[in-house]
């Protein structure tokens, strides 16, 4: 096997350990790493101890509050404790009892078996301040459980920090005998550097911090190559193949411990081995089946027809959605970026007049892809128009009210990773909110206030906007309307919001919606609401039917009263005004005897061919 190269962070650690007094190692420290010294996967703290021993430290002492000091023999431990407590160390040979002269009046000194932080930090201080050639390295594990809030430290915690800072302040030995060797060192290993009181690092040239990053692509690839025969997958793992590369990409963001657990899951997931993608879904989301896997050529060929039945008069928008979903289905989403597996399945920007079907189209897509209209998760961006309202999306920072609850957006994606995320009226959001969307569209991920990273790789992102709806002139020329809306969007985000990069992330997927100017379309929208109206009348009053002499003529009369600029929503408002409100008054007259309506039909009488209606009952 070829020689293992040290990762950059480990190279930096070795370099810093040769000259610093205090190093805080944080980040992915609870993971495993491939050791260049033992050629095996070991815990990060074990790897740090290996490196320190390889650097010829005379003693490498590991300590945590639960287990005390480890990594040194009993004689060395006793000597360290004795030095720090001012007790004479036991003789090098024999036990304390053997070396004790029975003629002495007092019993021999007892070296305490202590795990107390005060005593340990006293040891650290004594060793780092001691002169001589002996060098000690102390690795402190789980220091996040030692210190409370930096603004509310107890007296004991302040004393421990004082001892650490006193140890770090030891002068640099610059003699010829010392420059080529490291000084005594203390290393604190914790997941978050914020868990260490900042006074230890700030303005302290003797101290530094080093971040252990998540495994890189090459590190994940190396793990899969080393363990290829241990996985139980339906297609196996063959290095240097396209499926192998896709599997490596799909593991983005997972730690080495995650990969080990994933490997165990592959052997425990059932009698039939799973595909790599299904295994990842099972591990990440608790469900081995992805709705994206249910898509097939036959179903996709019905997308335009299926969605077109619900959204009328927006053929160009439906065609664009069809393009985006086919691109995701063929696995070509995000190829213009370097991290294709992390990108959302698609990102679309719907712009156009109110009431023309933008929200309805998003709901229709959710129903088509995921079998449930509730998979369309809607956020009204007019509620996020303040500078700090981004905390509602991702959660408040630690220490703030609501921190434990997380963010509305990140929580929603955790619950439903397979979803259409609809951000309605995006132009009303504060510009700071848009920065979050830049991260989602670029990296496909977002870190919430609790530090959890949420993936958007299985979702479709849709923004809607009414930019220009009041300025663009109504026209039957679809091309001119399209260009007018695109110009309005460009001007708004470039010159007003100062966020042209958001448009760059969306690319060619800005979809202008047309004004609905064809009366037949508006009449069809009104007709689509008669079915739920009839169902409600039957359920509540037992009314058999709602009967028109000429239903189409009645709906066209209502549509003629609506303003074209208001779109389908304007038609529904007129439907309520001219038909539903008078019908409600008619039914109210029978409120004292609602049973009288049961089994009867309501006949709608159109007066004068206009949008004026009367009602009558018939058996």
Automatic annotation (TrEMBL):
Record domain AAA+ ATPase: where: 344-485
Gene3D superfamilies in the record: P-loop containing nucleotide triphosphate hydrolases (3.40.50.300)
The keyword Transcription regulation is annotated on this UniProt entry: no
Keywords: ATP-binding, Nucleotide-binding
SMART domains from the UniProt entry: AAA
Pfam families: AAA_2
Keyword Nucleotide-binding (UniProt): yes
Stored PANTHER family: ATP-DEPENDENT CLP PROTEASE (PTHR11638), HEAT SHOCK PROTEIN 104 (PTHR11638:SF18)
Stated name of the protein: AAA family ATPase
């Amino acid at each position: 096997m070829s020689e293992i190269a040290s990762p950059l962070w480990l190279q930096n650690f070795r370099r810093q350990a040769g000259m610093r007094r205090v190093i805080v190692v944080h980040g992915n420290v609870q993971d495993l790493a491939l050791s260049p010294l033992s050629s095996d996967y070991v815990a990060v703290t074990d790897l740090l101890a290996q490196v320190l021993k390889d650097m010829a430290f005379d003693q490498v002492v590991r300590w945590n509050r639960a287990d005390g000091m480890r990594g040194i023999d009993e004689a060395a431990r006793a000597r360290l404790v004795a030095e720090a407590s001012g007790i004479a160390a036991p003789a090098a040979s024999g036990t304390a009892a053997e070396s004790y002269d029975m003629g002495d009046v007092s019993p021999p000194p007892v070296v305490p078996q202590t795990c107390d932080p005060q005593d340990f930090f006293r040891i650290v201080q004594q060793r780092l301040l001691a002169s001589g050639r002996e060098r000690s390295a102390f690795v402190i594990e789980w220091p996040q459980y030692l210190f409370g809030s930096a603004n509310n430290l107890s007296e004991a915690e302040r004393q421990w920090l004082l001892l650490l800072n006193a140890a770090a302040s030891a002068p640099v030995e610059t003699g010829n005998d010392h420059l080529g060797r490291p000084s005594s060192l203390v290393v604190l290993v914790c997941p978050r550097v914020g868990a260490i009181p900042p006074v230890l690092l700030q303005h302290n040239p003797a101290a530094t911090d080093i971040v252990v990053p998540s495994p890189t692509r090459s590190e994940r690839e190396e793990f899969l190559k080393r363990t290829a025969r241990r996985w139980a997958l339906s297609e196996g793992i063959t290095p240097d193949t396209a499926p192998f590369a896709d599997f490596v990409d799909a593991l983005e963001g997972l730690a080495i411990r995650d990969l080990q657990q994933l490997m165990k899951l592959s052997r425990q997931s059932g009698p039939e081995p799973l595909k790599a993608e299904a295994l990842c879904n099972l591990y990440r989301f608790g469900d081995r089946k992805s709705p994206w896997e249910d898509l097939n050529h036959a179903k996709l060929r019905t997308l335009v027809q299926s969605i077109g039945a619900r959204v009328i008069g927006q053929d160009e928008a439906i065609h664009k959605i069809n393009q985006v979903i086919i691109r995701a289905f063929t696995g070509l989403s995000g190829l213009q970026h370097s991290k294709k597996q992390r990108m959302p399945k698609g990102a679309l920007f719907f712009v156009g007049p109110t009431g023309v079907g933008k929200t309805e189209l998003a709901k229709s897509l959710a129903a088509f892809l995921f079998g449930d209209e509730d998979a369309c998760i809607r956020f009204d961006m007019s509620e996020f128009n303040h500078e700090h309202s981004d905390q509602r999306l991702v959660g408040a920072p630690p220490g703030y009210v609501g921190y434990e609850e997380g963010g509305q957006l990140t929580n929603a994606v955790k619950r439903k990773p397979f979803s259409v995320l609809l951000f309605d009226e995006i132009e009303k959001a504060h510009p700071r909110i848009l920065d979050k969307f830049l991260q989602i569209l670029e990296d496909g991920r977002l870190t919430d206030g609790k530090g959890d990273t949420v993936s958007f790789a299985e979702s479709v992102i849709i923004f809607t906007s009414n930019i220009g709806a009041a300025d663009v002139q109504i026209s039957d020329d679809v091309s001119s309307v399209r260009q007018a809306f695109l110009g309005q969007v460009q001007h708004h985000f470039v010159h007003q919001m100062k966020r042209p990069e958001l448009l760059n992330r969306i690319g060619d997927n800005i979809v202008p919606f047309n004004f609905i100017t064809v009366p037949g379309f508006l009449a069809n929208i009104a007709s689509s609401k008669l079915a739920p109206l009839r169902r409600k009348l039957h359920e509540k009053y037992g009314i058999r039917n709602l009967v028109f002499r000429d239903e189409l003529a009645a709906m066209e009369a209502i549509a003629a009263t609506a303003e074209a600029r208001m779109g389908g929503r304007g038609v529904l408002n007129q439907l309520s005004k001219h038909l539903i409100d008078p019908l409600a008054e008619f039914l109210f007259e029978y409120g004292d005897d609602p049973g009288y309506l049961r089994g009867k039909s309501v006949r709608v009488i159109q007066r004068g061919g206009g949008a004026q209606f009367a009602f009558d009952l018939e058996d």
